[in-house]
Design brief:
The chain has one domain (32-215): Rossmann fold (3-Layer(aba) Sandwich), CATH 3.40.50.850. 43% of the residues lie in helices and 18% in strands. Strands 3-2-1-4-5-6 form a six-stranded parallel beta sheet. It is an alpha/beta fold.
Length: 216
């Protein structure tokens, strides 16, 4: 898929999502930049570099959009939190390890965030070992300390870590916004079906261009 094709697909996805988004939700969940944080989920070398067995081809297409959002949040001095999925040497990977018969090891350089998104010293990089970025981490405490009430979610994969984290954020009373062309999955079917579920019950869909306009 090309960048132009992604733009076309984004319009198509938004049309598919519109029946699931009622007007009162849009009114009730108005985006407020100063109350928000950008959550960049698992934009790691293992998912974005071709030589990795876990490489997601469409991750290259969303990378530019995520980079633009990161740059905008930095220019506004708004909080950005990166997550990286990685298992410590003596840590039990649990059901995820049994499910995938694989693990991303903390000591493996491929577990690092891609260089073009290199987090600044002032930005949080949160290691997680579950789909859910809240599980076993201090993510909620960090967000509360920062006064964050809204989350703008990007990253990989839509139907796994992004969706699971978005659902839990909603149950913790954060307003959730998902950047539909700033996240991706291993197939378009999984990406779209996950977005439909999220938009029906948990999150407001937004394109990168919309998010950038809101942040101006």
């Amino acid at each position: 898929m090309s960048a132009d094709k992604l733009t076309e697909k984004t319009k198509e996805w938004m049309e598919l999502l519109s029946p699931y988004l009622s007007e009162h939700r849009t009114r009730a969940h108005k985006f407020s930049p100063k109350a928000s944080a950008l959550l960049v989920i698992d934009m790691q070398r293992c998912f974005l570099e071709r030589e990795s067995h876990a490489f997601l081809p469409t991750s290259k297409l969303i990378l530019g959009n995520v980079e633009r959002l990161v740059a905008k949040y930095r220019s506004k001095s708004l909080p950005i939190i990166f997550t990286r999925h990685a298992v410590l040497p003596h840590e039990d990977p649990g059901s995820m390890g049994r499910w995938w018969a694989d693990r991303i090891r903390d000591e493996d350089p491929m577990s690092h965030i891609v260089s073009s998104l290199r987090p600044m010293d002032s930005e949080t990089v949160l290691r997680k070992s579950k789909y859910n970025a809240f599980a076993g981490t201090d993510l909620e405490a960090k967000l509360r300390r920062l006064g964050v009430k809204q989350l703008m979610i990007t990253g990989v994969m839509t139907h796994l870590c992004c969706e699971t984290t978005a659902r839990d954020a909603f149950t913790r009373d954060f307003d959730v916004f998902v950047v539909i062309d700033g996240m991706t999955s291993s197939s378009e079917d999984l990406h779209v079906s996950s977005l439909k579920t999220l938009v029906d019950g948990f999150a407001i869909p937004v394109t990168t261009e919309e998010a950038l306009r809101w942040l101006r």
